[in-house]
TrEMBL record:
Belongs to the RAMP family. InterPro entries: RAMP, RAMP_sf. Residues 1-23 have a biased composition (Pro residues). This is Receptor activity-modifying protein 2. The gene is RAMP2. One of its GO terms (biological process) is intracellular protein transport. The chain crosses the membrane at residues 191-212. The keyword Nucleotide-binding does not apply. Residues 1-76 are annotated as: Disordered.
Length: 221
C-alpha cells in the first residue's frame, strides 16, 4: 500500500503553522480581528478575510478601560471628568445665590449672632437693666455689630432687620424702665412768704437811699 501523500498548500501562500499551546490549552485561531478601518472581521482563512463578514464598530478609547471593564488608568479617568475639578470646592461670587439665600437672608442670620451675644451679656447682669452705666456698653456693641454686618452685605443702616432686633431688646430688657425725672413741689408757706417779703421790703429802702444820695451833693455846695 503506497504511503499517504501530504496535501501541499496553494502556491504563493506560506504554510499555516499551528498555534503553540499556552498552559496546556491550545489557543483558538478563530479570534475576531480588528482591521485598520475600524471594523471587526471574521477569522482570516488561508485565502484571506472572508468577504461580507466584517462589521463596523465604534472605536473605544484606551483611556476608558480595558476589555475586562476596569479603567486602564485612574488618573486619566479623573481628567475625563471636568465636573470633579477642584474649582467646585471653592466658593464663587454667586455662592450665596447657589445656596438659595439672598443677601437679606444672610444678613438676618448674622444679625441673629449679634443679638445672641448681646442677650448673653444682658442675662449675665440679671438686674439693674435700667442703669445706663451698666448697659451702655453691650447696647453700643449691639448697634455697632448690626451696622458692621450691614456694611459687609452692602445694606443700609438702619434697616428693618436691625430695627426689629433693637425693638426686641427694648421690649425684653427695658420695658420696665422709665425716664427718671426730678419731681418739683412748692416750698413750705413760711419759706415762700419770706421769699416774697424780702424783695418787697428792699425796694423802699433802695429808693430812699438813691434819693438821699442825690440830695447830698446839693447840700455840700
Amino acid at each position: 500500500m503506497p504511503p499517504p501523500t501530504r496535501a501541499l498548500p496553494p502556491l504563493g501562500l506560506p504554510p499555516s503553522r499551528p498555534t503553540p499551546p499556552s498552559n496546556g490549552i491550545p489557543r483558538p485561531d478563530a479570534r475576531p480581528r480588528r482591521s485598520s478601518s475600524g471594523t471587526h472581521c471574521a477569522p482570516r482563512s488561508r485565502h484571506g478575510p472572508r468577504p461580507g463578514l466584517c462589521r463596523p464598530v465604534d472605536p473605544v478609547p484606551s483611556a476608558l478601560g480595558t476589555r475586562s471593564g476596569r479603567p486602564a488608568n485612574p488618573g486619566q479617568m479623573a481628567v475625563l471628568k471636568p465636573q470633579e475639578s477642584l474649582a467646585q470646592h471653592f466658593p464663587t461670587p454667586d455662592y450665596l445665590n447657589l445656596e438659595g439665600k439672598t443677601l437679606e437672608e444672610n444678613y438676618e442670620t448674622d444679625a441673629q449672632l449679634c443679638w445672641h451675644d448681646y442677650k448673653d451679656y444682658m442675662d449675665s447682669i440679671k438686674k439693674d437693666w435700667c442703669d445706663w452705666a451698666l448697659i451702655s456698653r453691650p447696647y453700643s456693641i449691639l448697634q455697632e455689630c448690626l451696622e458692621q454686618k450691614a456694611d459687609a452685605f452692602k445694606l443700609g443702616f438702619p434697616n428693618p432687620w436691625a430695627e426689629r432686633i433693637i425693638f426686641e431688646a427694648h421690649r425684653i430688657h427695658f420695658a420696665n424702665c422709665s425716664l427718671v425725672q426730678p419731681t418739683f413741689s412748692d416750698p413750705p408757706e413760711d419759706v415762700l412768704l419770706a421769699m416774697i417779703m424780702v424783695p418787697i421790703c428792699l425796694i423802699p429802702f433802695l429808693v430812699t437811699l438813691v434819693v438821699w444820695r442825690s440830695k447830698d451833693p446839693e447840700a455840700q455846695t
